[in-house]
Structures are given as structure tokens and as C-alpha cells.
Amino acid sequence: MAIQVRIPTILRTYTDGDRVVEGSGSTVTELIDQLEADHTGIKERLVENGEARRFVNIYVNDEDIRFTGNLGTPVADGDTVVILPAVAGGSGV
Amino acid sequence: MLTIDQATHDAIIAHARRDHPDEACGVVAGPIGSDVPARFVPMLNAAMSPTFYEFDSGDLLKLYREMDDNDEEPVVIYHSHTATEAYPSRTDINLAGEPGAHYVLVSTRDGAHESGPVDFRSYRITGGEVTEEEVRVVAAYTGVAPDPTTKHRQKADD
């Protein structure tokens, strides 16, 4: 059994179009490192300066990792991880 | 080209007016591959700001789950600018995360939040490039001729 990771449309260029990929690791950091090994380039889209990017949401079993320990959030086989780009913007003035 | 029905078009404008001077935001979901914006989903602007919008992260997850369950995708992602024109800002371009969506912008500036016409424009935003597209407002989707500029067939015509 592995960790199921749901990939958003904009990152499916890294997964040959797959909507769901499998991964492993004991924390989100380890999971992302393992994803990077199979899908080169994806890490840079998720992590910046050692932290999850501000406008990417990562959920472990429906909990936003911002509230559960960020990239240190524990994961285990059978967990579901969802990655969603923030829907955000604005005039900025 | 964006083809959108009058009721949804008007609902987006009503939402923008209601939330003025803060930016309003939401999506219009539709069956995957249909290019038909069918289900209007106004969202809370968690930033509650006149210059920024962001879906709440919990609401975002719930929305995507719902769309998954319904075999839908975000056909339209809309938001309002309340003091500037209905054109994507640098922030809008940098944060655009759905390459397949029509990004609709409306402007409620210059009193448009109270009366008069509201600018309603649509764009594709992919890889940092903005392409404005025509907006066609229809009474209903039934019987609408397929849009020749769209790769997908319109489900309403099946």
C-alpha cells in the first residue's frame, strides 16, 4: 500500500498526464523528495526555500498541512494527499 | 470564445456588486470537456480585500471534491476588480493555476457597483500569457451552435 497523491491539472506535465500517482515517505518532505525522483521538476513547483509555496495547497487526509506541521506533517501508507494550486489573484493596487 | 448563459453572467455581476468594494470571486463548473459553464459557485474571498482574492483552502478542497464527484471542472474562474479595469493584473497572471479555464474579470469601478454597465471580459491565462477572448452571452445553452474556436464539442448540442 502506498500514499495516493492527487496531482492538479497544471502539474500533470510532470506526471505524463496522470491525475493520481503513488508515493512513499514518512513526512510530506520525504514524500515530495520521492515524487521528485519519479517526476523531475515537480518539487520546485511545490517547495521554495525549504517551505511549501504560499500559493500551493497540500492536504493530507483533507487537512491543510499549514495546520498540521507544514512539510513535517507525518504521512503513512494508505493516506491520501491532495495538491491544489490556490485560486487567488486580484488587482494588487 | 466564452459562451455563457445570461443568468450565470448576471449572477457573476450581482456577486461583484454585492461584495464591492472588496473583490468577489467564484467559479462556474461544467462537465469535463464540455466547455459549458453550467453550475454557478460563488466563493468567499478569504482575503476580504479590495485588491486581492483567495479561496479559503478548506473551501477550495471541498469545491474540487464536489467537482470530482460530479465529473466537473472549473470552466470559468471569475473575480472582480473594484477600482481598476477588467484586465488581468500581474498578480492574476502569476497565480493563474488552471490553464484550461476561462478567466472572467468584471470591473465595478466608477460607480458600476451601483448602476450602469459592468465590464465583463474573459481571458485565457497560460504560461504567463494572457489572451483575451470574445464573450458570447446566450439565453440558454440548448440549441447553441458549437463554437468553432473550441476543441471540445459542446455537450448541450449532443
CATH class of chain A equals Alpha Beta
CATH architecture term of chain B: 3-Layer(aba) Sandwich
Runs of chain B with pLDDT <50, length 5+? 152-158
Class from secondary-structure proportions of chain B = alpha/beta
Shape of chain A: globular
Could you estimate the helical fraction of the residues of chain A in percent?
10-25%
Chain pair sharing the greatest interface: A-B, 20 and 36 residues
CATH level 3 topology of chain A = Ubiquitin-like (UB roll)
Across the major sheet of chain A, the strand order is: 2-1-7-5-6
**Residue runs with pLDDT of under 50 for 5 or more positions of chain A:** none
Order of helices and strands of chain A: EEHHEEEEEE
Q: Report the sheet with the most strands of chain A, covering strand number, pairing sense and barrel closure.
A: 5 strands, mixed
What would CATH call the homologous superfamily of chain A? Answer: Beta-grasp domain
The CATH class name of chain B reads: Alpha Beta
Overall 3D form of chain B: globular
| CATH topology title of chain B | Cytidine Deaminase, domain 2
Main sheet: strands, sense, barrel of chain B: 6 strands, mixed
Distance between the termini of chain A: 49 Å
How many individual helices of chain A? Answer: 2
Average pLDDT value of chain B? 91
Radius of gyration of chain A: 13 Å
Task: Describe the structure in brief.
The complex is a heterodimer of chains A (93) and B (158). Chain A has two helices and eight strands. With 93 residues, chain A is α+β, with helices and mostly antiparallel strands.
